[in-house]
């Protein structure tokens, strides 16, 4: 006999009961590797007043600094990369995520399926097309252009290395395919007609491959202001695609990009708020240095946040879907930026 915390005698449990309480190997395998933060429950109410067609998300999710916001502990980045999505998607405000790693290397059907298996049926993925299709340059490890890319805007590669694997692996959980055209050389900027002809051929092949999945949104993001034109609008409209708002130092501010969406109206909103303009066109390294460990709003951008909230209200209020992806490099902490955006969207 021994005493419990209140001083009363307690008999030890029978050996059989103790054995039964021990987790089985199967239970240990199925236990979540990353547990969600308890603070998620505080956002159930605010999330319920948002339009059902609005989906907020982040670009990548492997940040230990989100302890207390998304996770319940300081997990290492490798663990979060492999297992964090299961906890992430339980946050009431986070109903999508952008898979950025596909830009650097195509993923397999099995890799996409593994992502899909970590989330519920309401969740949707935004996926970036590999650079082997959307970058006009072949680049070295540090991003320096080495030579022209002979596969730029290749329709076959876009379908076989991107559309088909994402559809097969994600199924109904695929929400948006993003084709981000990397900064173009003067060769292409001086030949806009040829560029848009190539883009249209690729988008036509993509649309054909999506014939059985009409709900999937196809969005084109550019990194050259010169491309914001009626000619691009016409190309996108012809192939049932939309313009992705790219809130980034290399592009004009949000109010100067909104005319593209007005010209494409009615249509969905796809927005990627990736870099605060105060860091300039190529300030990712500076933003990372200033914002780490990404657990607080450090570079607040009230103007962009307010304009984006109004845009969300207008588009979802008209019954159109909205996918809004936020990076840590926007203000310092993507989950906190999303919380403030959610609060700014009128109910």
From TrEMBL:
This is DUF72 domain-containing protein. It holds the Pfam family DUF72. Residues 16-27 have a biased composition (Low complexity). PANTHER family: DUF72 DOMAIN-CONTAINING PROTEIN (PTHR30348:SF4), UNCHARACTERIZED PROTEIN YECE (PTHR30348). Residues 1-42 are annotated as: Disordered.
